[in-house]
Amino acid sequence: MSVAIGKHATDARPFAGLDVFVPADTRARIDFVLGLRHHWAHDVFVALRDQYQARVKAIGAKLRTGEDAGPIVESLPLYPVFAWFERNIQKMMWRALTEACEADREQLVAALNKPVSSPIGSLELEPHLRLPDYYANTEFHIQPGGVWSADINAFIYELGAKVIFLGKNDDYAFHRLFTEKGVPDGDYRDILDMGCGFGKSARPFVDRFPRARVVAVDLSAPVLKLAHRQSEKLGKRIAFYQRAAEDTRFPDSSFDLVTATMVIHEQPMPVVRRTLAEAYRLLRPGGRLAILDYHRTGDPFRDFLMIGHARRNNEPFMGHILQVDTAALAREVGFRDTALLPFDERGAGPREDGTWPERSDWHFPWVLLRGRK
Amino acid sequence: MPDLTFFPDPAVDRVLGVVMELAQEVYALRQKLGALEGTAGEEGGTEARDAFVARILVPLTYERESPAPEFQAP
Hints:
Number of strands of chain A: 9
Oligomer: heterodimer
Helix content of chain B: 55-70%
Strand content of chain B: under 5%
Number of domains of chain B: 1
CATH class of the domain at 161-372 in chain A: Alpha Beta
CATH topology of the domain at 161-372 in chain A: Rossmann fold
Number of helices of chain A: 13
Structural class of chain B: mainly alpha
Largest sheet of chain B: none
Order of helices and strands of chain B: HH
Strand order of the largest sheet of chain A: 1-4-3-2-5-6-9-7-8
CATH architecture of the domain at 161-372 in chain A: 3-Layer(aba) Sandwich
Radius of gyration of chain B: 15 Å
Order of helices and strands of chain A: HHHHEHHHEHEHEEHEHHHEEE
Radius of gyration of chain A: 21 Å
Number of strands of chain B: 0
């Protein structure tokens, strides 16, 4: 059970290997949005940077931070174009993805709620869980209704997660890379993935550490139901729980590895601190922490655009995570051997020398936070 | 609540939204026409799509007029 976009929109057949039909018109609209995003990430971004570099050179500006670069970037002729497309491509994308999933809404929702027969993993939902205000009141990534307010939103979000990577993450190679290169070797018995979404970040741990018990938590019931179904379909044994990363209620010292991928930038800073403290509490002595998220790069141009991305993409707490040294935060709650390393999602993974990958296109400033209890 | 705007005149934000919606529909219609005429591109190809998008956006991206990439109708 899944929805996916095709490579090409002219084909009237359903997508290969899928049990859901997406109308050809809708697929064409999604395809167009992908084309817009590709052009924005490459051509528009590169042209904006050219304008920025020319302006900085012309006025002899000495810039150190994203905030320093702000007035210059905002004065560039192309900046409104860049900013408009960044936000509105995202909005067009959600409209097209919603259209795609709504076409089979009844079938998808019914399948999502059908009990899994003879599961190898488990799913524990909390129907009365009160979602934190910071989560319930924010439409992260501009997704209408967020990922929690309706079952269909889980499918829309899953499809969006593929689109955002321009089709390069269809098999979630990004998460496999994090699992294989972001986490040190070890004989882990119990692994916890915080904020697992629809399971794409948790499943690779089953493959890399087949003897470990893999547990995953998220606040959203719809994505957890999807995560459970997909994991069972793929034969990945995972125990899913509807719980907050900052308050998992698992016993002290019950895990050897705690991970979180693309989670803490969606939390207010006090909650980030509580999440790190929770990870520390849950780990056994010597246990490992591995968190993949964003950080400022030291390139004033990119850092300013990332600060703006937070506003344009409805990420109200991302600005804080870009400002703070999360490794220092981890040390404050007790972690040792901490490191904050740029992470190259094209295959190299964490860059031990601390340098950022050379790339000409727009891309997220991924960073790996490592620590040990 | 009004959405974010980015141009000095917010009317430009709205007009650009209209233009992109129309462009999206033109693309979808071209794809459908290509399928009906049996001239649709190969599965997996993105070159025609990217050329279509570039043809629309190049005038916005560069201050001086730039030649658009070669565009091949599907």
